[in-house]
Design brief:
With 125 residues, the chain is an alpha+beta fold. It has 6 helices and 5 strands; from the N terminus they run αααββββααβα. A hairpin with a 6-residue loop joins strand 2 and strand 3.
């Protein structure tokens, strides 16, 4: 159930953390919001929440505000988790599978593959 990045990929990715990954992901998230606004509407009051997405096999994390056309993704230091209302941690490939719907979030959570802390109701939304 748990997929992990090969060690050499984890080793070289910190070198790419300084690239404009955040702006590129922000544009992608905003494009998704234009194509599928109902996904963001379902978040209700949680759309302005700061979600800290921490791929445990990378040296950096992401801070995401899924506010529709105003969505934002930033590459963050791991130490910034405390600035966010929600923290989701797990292996990168597992988090991506969760995002695209090929993995069941409940199963991943209850099998300790991912962890969720903070405002869990925001993740459920």
């Amino acid at each position: 159930m748990e997929a992990r990045l090969p060690g050499f990929v984890s080793a070289i990715l910190p070198a790419f953390a300084g690239l404009p990954l955040g702006p590129a992901l922000t544009l992608s998230l905003r494009a998704l919001a234009r194509r599928r606004p109902a996904l963001f509407d379902r978040l209700g009051e949680h759309r302005r929440e700061r979600y800290f997405i921490d791929p445990v096999d990378l040296a950096f994390a992401f801070t995401v505000v899924p506010d529709g056309a105003r969505s934002e993704v930033r590459v963050s230091r791991k130490a910034e988790a405390s600035t966010c209302g929600v923290v989701v941690r797990g292996p990168l490939l597992t988090l991506l599978a969760l995002l695209d719907g090929t993995q069941d979030g409940d199963a991943l959570f209850f099998n300790w593959v991912i962890s969720i802390s903070g405002r869990t109701e925001a993740v459920v939304a």
